[in-house]
Structures are given as C-alpha cells and as structure tokens.
TrEMBL record:
GO terms for biological process: NAD+ metabolic process; NADP+ biosynthetic process. HAMAP family: NAD_kinase. It comes from the Bacteria. It is an enzyme of class 2 (transferase). GO terms for cellular component: cytoplasm. This is NAD kinase. It catalyses: NAD(+) + ATP = ADP + NADP(+) + H(+). It is found in: Cytoplasm. It comes from Secundilactobacillus silagei JCM 19001. Belongs to the NAD kinase family.
Amino acid sequence: MMKIGIFSNPGSASTRVSNALKSKIKAEHLVLDNDDPDILITVGGDGTLLSAFHHYEKQLAKIRFVGIHTGHLGFYTDWRDYEVDELIDSLAHDNGQSVSYPLLDILIEYSDGKKQSMLALNESTLKKLTGTMLANVYIKDQLFELFRGDGLCVSTPTGSTAYNKSAGGAVVSSELDVVQVSEIASINNRVFRTLGSPIIISPQEWVRIEPVELNENLMTCDQKVVENRQIKSVTYRISKQRIAFAQYRHTQFWKRVSESFIGVKPVD
Ligand code: NAD
C-alpha cells in the first residue's frame, strides 16, 4: 500500500489544507506515514518544498514529491489548495508516473581540514558579509579567474529561475544536466577582471571556489545558511542523485517560466 506523508508550513491556510488532506487520505484507505513516505505532499510555497527536500534528503531515492501551493502557483508546486479532491483521485490511481530533476552536489572543505557534503535543489551561494569577496575560481582544477565582488551563485536548472536569475544568470531548461555559475556584483575595471558573464558546466566538469580571505564569508544552500566556520574551498558539480516529482499533471517548464515571469496572452 502506498504511503503518503504531508509536510506543511504552519500558516492557517496550509494547516486547513493539510487537515483536509489527512481526512481524505484516510477516507480513501491510503496510508499516512510521515517517516517513510512514498509520496510526500508539501503544502505551502516553494520555500516549503525546499524545506521538505532538505528534511527528506536522505530518502530521495524512494520519495516522489507533490507540491500544493496555498498562494499563487510556484515553481515546484503544481497543485492549488482548492484542488485537493483531484489530487486525492490522482493518488488513488497512481501508477508510479514521475519526472526528475538534477541536484547540485556540494563538497565543503573547512580550514581545520574537515569536509562536509550537501545537496542543493535551487542553488548555493558564497558571499562576503562585509567588503569584497576575493576568491580563486577553478574549473576542473585549472585556475579560471580571481573573482572580486559580492559573491558567486551556483545553481541547478530548476534553481536557475530563482536567485540565479536575479544575479543575471540564464534560465536553463530543466531537461539539461548542468550547473550554472553566476556572478553577484563582480568588480570589473582596468585592474580587476572576471569573465563578467554566467558560465554553464557539463556533468563531467566541476567548479571549485577558494576564498582568499577566510573570515566573514557566508555560504548558503537553498534557503539555509551553512554553519559559520572558516571555509577553505567549496567544490560544486552535478549530483548523481535527483529529485523526483509524481507526474499526475505536467506543466511544461517553459510554460511555467512564461506564466510566472511574463504572463503573456496570445493576441487574437
Ligand atoms: P523567500 O521567502 O525569500 O522566497 C524567495 C522567492 O523565490 C519566493 O517567491 C519563491 O517562490 C521563489 N523561488 C524559490 N525557488 C524558486 C525557483 N526555483 N524558481 C523561481 N522562484 C523560486 O525564500 P524561500 O521561499 O525560502 O526560497 C529560498 C530561495 O530564495 C533561495 O533558494 C533563493 O533562490 C531565493 N533567493 C533569492 C534571492 C534573490 O533573488 N536576490 C535572494 C535570496 C534568496
């Protein structure tokens, strides 16, 4: 029997939706299991989906996610709060349909020699809290540039519409297995030079960022700030793991981008 978990943000609208979900799941004789779910329904927005992803990141191989949005449609949320009945019907007729997206593999090396791995669904950034971040950037262990600026943003294709887009990065098709690095306010003048444009690397390549000054750097992984220890280097590459969504309905990636950012309607 398929096990269904619910991960809700604490707001009143989301709590109402998750209570309705719980009673309908019981009425359909589906099994509620938040510890070991096959399907994990998030109720809230993109931020809730990001939190759920990190909460369940050790169980990614088994879980398919479904996002219900209690506000407007989000990037990871295909269902609206008034569509609970339709969603329950899809769950009852589930045949394992899914779509999966690439994730970002992050390896941090701290100045004390300790290493830590993590995964990001949207992006990871490395920034300096005060002043200019100075960092050596390597691609496949080859020095690429000495970066000076606010910081760097390394994103997945589905994360390319988030922070990366604000940093001037390209929106990347979710069908590509690539990692993008975009600059956050780089300094470019006669003395200092960075490439000045976003780069996209293949699954066979990796990027390593080594801050030159170890103090006051801030690292983020999706919505979280990484523990504030001195970071010697961070290596980014496409992960071998992916996130899967139950594909009961499919909003085409470029349709979602167009509707979210442009809202264009055909002219008769
Ligand atoms: P939040 O409440 O600050 O929301 C940020 C916004 O980003 C929300 O509108 C959310 O719907 C949207 N968003 C999240 N993932 C997206 C995606 N893949 N594509 C398009 N839009 C997306 O924070 P949150 O909800 O916890 O989300 C964390 C995310 O916020 C981070 O992963 C980062 O991408 C983004 N962020 C963006 C900026 C920026 O654009 N300058 C700065 C900080 C964080």
